[in-house]
Amino acid sequence: xxxxxxxxxxVTIFTVMSRxxxxxxxxxxxxxxxxxxxxxxxxxxxxxxxxxxxxxYAPMPGVPALRQAISAKTEALYGxxxxxxxxxxxxxxxxQALMTAILAVAxxxxxxxxxxxxxxxxxxxxxxxxxxxxxxSLLPPTPGEPTYRPDWTAVRQAITLRTRAxxxxxxxxxTGAILxxxxxDELERIVADTGVLLISDEVYEHIVFxxxxxxxxxxxxxxxxxxxxxSSFGKTFHTTGWKIGYCCAPAVLSAEFRKIHQFMVFxxxxxxxxxxxxxxxxxxxxxxxxxxxxxxRDRLAQGLRQTRFRTLPCPGTxxxxxxxSAISDAPESEFARWLTTEHGVAxxxxxxxxxxxxxxGSNRQLVRFCFAKQDSTLDAALEKLQAV
Length: 388
Fold this sequence. Notes:
Blueprint: H1 13-24, E1 27-28, H2 40-51, H3 64-78, E2 88-91, H4 93-105, E3 111-116, H5 122-128, E4 132-137, H6 152-158, E5 163-169, H7 181-194, E6 197-201, H8 221-224, E7 227-232, H9 233-236, E8 245-248, H10 251-264, H11 270-279, H12 284-287, H13 289-304, E9 310-311, E10 319-323, H14 332-343, E11 345-346, E12 348-349, E13 366-370, H15 375-385
Parallel strand pairs: 1-11, 3-4, 3-5, 5-6, 6-7
Antiparallel strand pairs: 2-8, 7-8, 9-10, 10-13, 12-13
Helix pairs in contact: 1-14, 2-11, 3-11, 4-5, 4-10, 13-15
């Protein structure tokens, strides 16, 4: 028999709901992936790279042209200068980057603080490193503050002498919360007082709405100096299946990151890296993304106003939360299954992002809709939801 390293981990909620959607032929607004293709120009760039012979191993830290493009983009957006030679590493998606970062900074006896609701890969990665995850709940929505937000006092109280890192994720999946300048101020004080490292998952950095700017940790030199910043081209360029991400970090942290990276995957897809490097030459491809997704957010939110769901504000990501308390008092997982099987629309329960999904405090009668879909998909889903 195998002595499982993750005895409490089963199939993820995304797999469960997507499988149920397929079995019932429901419209899948659960799992976070677009149902439309990438820009034809990007596909042409990858095709050209393949035909040009870029089909063998890439350099371990990534194709130089892509690392240089990432460096230029990050400096232009946030004013942070990362050396493409020593401080930027291209990874097999953000999930691999997160696992590598955690393994690089934490080990047996260490602690890593995470914010709940927490994306499902964080806690298993921390446990595989031999460390202990310490959950701190985000402040839940209230009538006066209708979005989730960090409780920095509770975060500070959770940090001990064993804490090696604080793992943050903004814009936040699953709640859509974003950071403000005041939050970066609090983070600076926490880092200065405790010496903790930051792992900042910023894969939705280009999906922030209503004219707001993404509050990247790269905007603050004091934070960037102690942080591993992780992002992904999958969310930005509608290519989640390519699994191309990256990590920006000071040279001393990047050196430890690369030690592990080289033995996890060594390098990632060469022609896709060349294609992405060329595509990044035009910043409009990511600067126009907020308007593109804001139109979809507003389409879904407006349609849901014709239903018995009550939407919460969505300042970032391509996920919209909705309160179903006017429809049912069932726990979130039960309601999500019922909505999928009886009304043909798959969603994700927010309770699934908590350490104990069945706890009363984890169930706030909220579900997550993904609006990274064609307008026709959203309209078909809304027609079904109006009948609930």
